[in-house]
What we know:
This protein is an all-beta fold. The chain has strands at residues 11-14, 23-28, 41-44, 49-53, 64-72, 75-80, 87-94, 99-105. A hairpin with a 2-residue loop joins strand 5 (64-72) and strand 6 (75-80).
Amino acid sequence: MSEPPSDLFRSWVHSYEEDHEDVRVYRPDGHPFPPARGRRGMEFAPDGTFVDHPLGRGDAPDAVPGRWRLVSDRHIALTFGGGRPDRELEILRCDEDVLHVRRLTG
């Protein structure tokens, strides 16, 4: 993979019910999730921008801008400003319905 899969470029919401071992599962925004107090998410854009959506006050999603870059085959680095720790992800599966990632750092 010299470029990330084109299906990556959208807003993803953490489907923690489907996580297994060290794999985190995300579904596209709009997926019919079961009720939850709050869900984390993330957005990838083709221009290298990234938005992390951690849970904020009252379990409401927050928005933290950053950048992504492809490090190597299936390996993406996420960088943030303001002292926020950077992260690295391995893409295990990505299609229009699901994103499976493994956090390598962060």
